[in-house]
Amino acid sequence: KIEQNKIYQGVIAQELQEVLPEVVNYAPISNDTDDDKYLTVIYEYIVPLLIEAVKEQQEEIEELSRILLDG
Fold it and tell me: Would the CA dihedral through 62, 9, 44, 37 be positive or negative?
């Protein structure tokens, strides 16, 4: 149920499809005769990728901090 006064966050499926097509599916309301296909994002597939990206970014930040402090 979508609440009227609540703020929701998400991603744009069409943009995500360009870089991670495996996390985007056609919505059940779309069919083969639709000109406009509705897309859905499988958020469960994105979470592990985001966690790894944050870890890698943190390692890079720490390395750059070491360089600056030793510099």
Answer: negative
Q: Name the residue type at position 12.
A: I
d(CA 71, CA 39): 49
**Which pTM was predicted?**
0.65
Tell me, what amino acid is at 32? D
Neighbour count for residue 42 (Cβ, 10 Å): 13
As a residue count, the chain comes to 71
Distances from the Cα of 36 to the Cα of 29, 30, 31, angstroms = 11, 8, 9
List, for residues 53-65, the tens digit of each pLDDT value: 999 999 999 999 9
Amino acid letter at 70? D
8 Å CB contact between 40 and 25: yes
